[in-house]
Amino acid sequence: MLFASFDFLLFVVPVLLAYWGLATRPRARWIVLLVASYFFYCASSRPVSGALPTRFTYVGLLAWSSVVDYICARVIAALPKGSFAKNLMLGISLCTNLGLLCYFKYVGFLLDAVHDVAHALHLELALPTLKLALPIGISFYTFQSLSYTIDVWRGRLEPERNFLRFSVFIAFFPQLVAGPIVRAADFLPQLRQRLSVTVEDVNFAAYRVSKGLLKKVLLGDYIAANFTDLVFSTPEQYSSLENLLALYAFTLQIYADFSGYSDIAIGIARLLGFRLNENFDRPYQAQHIGDFWRRWHMTLSTWLRDYLFFPLGGSRGTPARTYFNLWLTMFLVGMWHGASWNFVVYGNLQAAAMLYNRFLRTRPKDNLQLPALLGVSVGIGLLAVLLAASALSLGTSSALWFGFGAFLVAALNGLLPETTAWAPVHVLLMFNFASLSRVFFRADNLEIAGKIGGKLVHWDGLGVRSGLFRMQGLYDWVGSAMPPTLQNGGLWVAQWGVLLLIALGLAHHMTPARWTENLLTRSFRALPAPALGLVLSAICLLVSQLLAGPRPNIYFSF
Amino acid sequence: MTAPEQEPRADHRGILEGDDRVRHVSLQGDDASVDVAPSALRRWGWGMATLALLFVTPYVVPGLSRFAPWRPGDGYIPFWNIVGRELMGQGKQQEAARAEVARLEELARQALDNAEPAASEDEPAGRNHAALPTGSVPGDQSVPKVYPAYAVPAADAVEVAVGIENVAQLDHYYERLTLTELGLPGAITRASQWGDSVLGGDGLTSAIRRRLQHRFGDAGHGFHSLGRYNLSYVHQGVRYGDRGGWRTCEIIFKCEPDGRYGYAGVTSRSSGGGTSRWRTAAKGIGSSVSRFEFWYAKDPEGGRFQVKVDGEVERVIDTRADAPADAITSFWVPDGEHSFEVRAIGGGVARGYGVVLERDNPGIVWDELALIGSFTQRLDYQDPEHLAWQVDHRGVDMLVFMFGGNDVQRETMDLVHTMQPYEDEYARVLRKFKAGRPSASCLVMSLMDHGERAGQFGVQSRRIVPKLVLSQQKVALAEGCAFFNTFQAMGGKDSIARWYNARPQLAGADFSHPTIAGQELIATLLYRALMQGYAGFRKDHEGKPLPEVGPGPVRDDIVKLESKKPSKTDADAGAK
Q: For every one of its 576 residues, what pLDDT tens digit does chain B have, with 9 covering 90 and above?
């Protein structure tokens, strides 16, 4: 269900009332939460565009995961450490969860990939084509569920004996379909704590929900509908500068879309008495690739760090082993987002930048030639991979060359001194690396990525066409309703409105969080209650008037 | 590398730096107490009450009804996935729509697959006459006197869901196409397509051009405007660039008081410095040219143009004349890759229209004459005599029009109650163009489907689209033109939503323009319809007398540059 929809309002108000009404009866409260969560999962709104939501019956997968992991964890906890049966039960849990994820998300691509490679080698294989509907949220609740069984197996968490409570943890609706990914060790104890909802919680929730909706609607959907979607659907028909601006706009849009969702999830959870982990920390202020992933989709990157990177040995083994661990983790970060050659390139791009960054940050300081040497080495290695992929006809060579160019931006960033004076340059380069590498994230396939990349590489110098950034509704209104003395200024603002919105969004993002967060939190605290309702109403009005309807969050498709 | 690694500074740590921190979490104890502060509930309650009040207001105050979150009939069904999809049976409709999208996707894949070989093939133009049923070859001196027997090529024998209406009006074009297919010397078949922004990137027109040229031979790119009057104006396969002080004037702005807008509806003026340069594509169809034609205006205040071919100044053209007139200067070069440059060098204000890039061998030319942002009626701004001269001198065999995309905006203006104004103006436009070359065929392509978001939960055709299509059909048939119903070929009502949702995506996010894949698909649909008509024409005309090729359009000012060595010739291409 989309948060920025009338459906959600119809849903969440009764749920909150029932939940608080049953405050003194924990079991009944959990039942309300569980039923509400399952209903939330089933009753998705019909999106304005794009694929339909998966059928409500897919909720069975969620229930199945819950049952399997509940049983597995109970058995694991009962068995002696190191026993075969204990490991077997963990294996069953892993196979069930990852098996479902792989089947629905990756098998189709794997078949296509085998076919592509075989075709490149002039082998004709008769492989079936599998196009499955991806169950919404499966990438999120699978990781959530796995954190539980793995922690129990490692002896870091006691198993939850109450199936109802455990099911609430797996299906908790505010973060069920698009995160933040919640760990069992963080959430299950909260189910046992006293239910507490204070005035401060209401203020906090109102602020986060308002902020999330504004981000989602104004910086996410509006920019998408009025600019980025137009350019990316036919990149060849737009100039180089327009393509580049669309990339920057998409960089802002995807952040606003996803972090807006997380804001709302965190706010709603707070009203239910739960504290969810933050998912974003102004990621485009990052100064290097490791810093970026510490700030972007934090619950995913920390999950992979704790459940993959560290178990593999982290950075405590030999350098070669450390680099392998780094590559695998970052590659999987990329592949988590989708199953296509695009994400293979995207994951490798992030991994290459991370490896290079690791080397530069841990290199012996007295050897100044090594960075350049290794930069060339990694560059050549990456180039070899890209050319190999190109030779295998896996995509257009321009896409892969463009990817290499994006890597060079990250490499250059790594070579600059890490001093305060250089911080703005680091931020600028990292922002550009994030934006450029997102070509592979946004484009439907490598061919389109290549077209966008080609536009940027073969710079045409044609500038921006008139009216591309126009806010048409505002423009019409200014033209007809504003007094003539104000019309010129008003028309200028309306003419460049979308671009101004992008610039303002990015400028706000680059401010220190404490400036705006503190101010706005204080403001919300000071508002009288009806004014809170007024603010929410104004945002709802924006949702309904600015766009014809809500759009699915980008991360729903992951 | 033997030196030990150093750990990064703690204040700059990345996500994968540092060590695993082990913590043990106990799930013992259960605190069932509650601390839901009444003040918190009151605050929340008042906020929600205000929200509810403001939600209800639009239903109570009629003047605010447009702000109502939910209006009857807007298609909104709460919790659609269960209620609408499962309980109201809308799932079946959606599955049917999805099946239609799958069919489209397959068609699009076919269109793109067919586009690839032609786009990339190094096919020497004018040689692709393998389909000749008579056994004759291009240049064969034994010119047939009658239409030879015709066997429909397998590629043309595909089912066509939407064919050309009033196809008999294309007889002249098919006649010329036959001569071209027979490879008769001088048999160039020209079509000129005017349209709005749907043609802007030359995606649709280049796709049609490519298909026809692959089948019948490449006779060049055709007409190209002198200045780039809009960023969206592009011609595929021509490396074009301009700089300096062109002042461009597109007909939609009614900016030429004398109504002389040139063949493409765009003029470029400069009192010095305006420069445009064309180079043929590096490879593939369209990589050769044997004739450049520079189209310009003469005027009492006219300035001078300097023309360079392959970087050398070949002519300075003085456009000063006693009275306004139009002129063409042709530059003949050996067939191959060449560049052509026009520069205004002062002496007055020089006004140019454009450049033709053609080859003098049997083949196809399909002009892209996009007028970005144009309403249909804007074409009527052309001075009739000037336009007639332009059309006649172009030697065009088929006039093609595809407008209406901007006229959809008139659904809330002058076309609310009647389509008569639109039909009258389109009829005037067709008459004005046809007057220039009455023998030429005429084809009206309807606008493609245009959509808008419907209520909160869907995309549907704009209401005016079917009405515009009907009007265009009515006018086309009444004015002696053939008609291709692009809207129906796309799938009819609401097809834009399916085109938008298809993968590859066929329509853009503005629900008005096709993507490149969509343009390829429309081109395929039109090409198939054209070829279906052609097959019928050839069958009907078997054994009937074959017309002569006849002389091409008259050219008074010809510059022959036979010593020019092309960068790449057919012989070079063949040797590769």
A: 344 445 555 455 676 677 667 777 777 777 777 777 888 889 999 999 998 998 888 888 888 877 777 777 767 788 888 988 888 888 888 888 788 888 888 888 877 776 644 443 444 344 333 333 333 344 455 678 899 999 988 888 888 889 999 999 999 999 999 999 999 988 999 999 999 989 988 989 999 999 999 899 999 999 999 998 887 788 888 889 888 789 999 999 999 999 999 999 999 999 999 999 999 877 666 788 999 999 999 999 999 999 999 998 889 999 999 999 999 999 999 999 999 999 999 999 999 999 999 998 899 999 999 998 889 989 999 999 999 999 999 999 999 999 999 999 888 888 888 999 999 999 999 999 999 999 999 999 999 999 887 655 567 899 999 999 999 999 999 999 999 999 999 999 889 988 888 878 888 878 888 988 899 999 999 999 999 999 999 999 999 999 988 888 878 888 888 777 766 544 343 332
Q: Count Cα atoms within 13 angstroms, Cβ side, for B73.
A: 0
List, in sequence order, every residue forming a beta bridge with B224; answer none if it has no partner: B355
The full 3-state SS of A123-186, as one line of letters, equals CCCCCCCCCCCCCCCHHHHHHHHHHHHHHHHCCCECCCCCHHHHHHHHHCHHHCCCCCCCCHHH
Chain B contact for A393 (CB, 8 A cutoff)? no
Q: pTM, whole model, 2 decimals? A: 0.80
Question: Does B23 contact A529 at a Cβ distance shorter than 8 Å?
Answer: no
Exposed (0-12), middle (13-18) or buried (19+): which is A82, by Cβ within 10 Å?
exposed
Specify the residue for token string 């005017």: B194
How far apart, in whole angstroms, are the C-alpha atoms of residue A80 and residue A65?
24
Q: Is A345:A390 a contact under the CB 8 Å cutoff?
A: no
Tell me how far CA of residue B179 lies from CA of B129, B221, B520, in angstroms: 11, 19, 27
Give how far the C-alpha of residue B69 lies from the chain's centroid of Cα atoms, to the nearest Å: 39
- Which helix (H) or strand (E) covers residue A245, if one does? helix A240-271
Contacts of B449 (CB under 8 A, 6+ apart): B461, B465, B487, B490, B491, B492, B493, B494, B495, B496, B499
Please report which helix (H) or strand (E) contains residue B495, including its range. Answer: helix B495-501
Residue B146, beta-bridge partner list? B545
Q: What whole-number distance in Å separates Cα of residue B200 and Cα of residue B406?
A: 13
First to last CA, chain B: 49
Residue B123 is predicted with a pLDDT of 41
Using alpha carbons only, give the angle A443, A447, A452 rounded to the nearest 5 degrees: 60
Q: Which residue, chain included where needed, has tokens 């550009």?
A: A432
Determine how many CB atoms are found less than 10 A away from the CB of residue B51.
Answer: 20
Tens of pLDDT, residue by residue over A493-538, are 888 999 999 999 999 999 888 888 888 888 888 889 889 889 888 8
Active site residues of A: 337
Give just the sign of the alpha carbon dihedral A117, A118, A124, A125: negative
DSSP string, B224-259: EESS--STT---TTEEEEEES--EEEEGGG---TT-
Whole-number CA gyration radius for chain A: 25
Contact between B342 and B352 under an 8 Å Cβ cutoff? The reply is yes
Q: Name residue, tokens 């929730």.
A: A205
A230, A306, A361 ranked by CB distance to B8: nearest = A361
Token pair in block for residue A128? 């079936």
Pick among B5, B13, B15, B231 to test the A interface (most A CBs inside 10 A): B15
Do A529 and B43 count as a contact with CB atoms less than 8 A apart? yes
CA distance B519 to chain A (A): 11
Tokens at residue A130, please?
A: 């599998």
Mutate to test the interface with A, among B2, B19, B21, B27 (most CBs of A within 10 A): B27
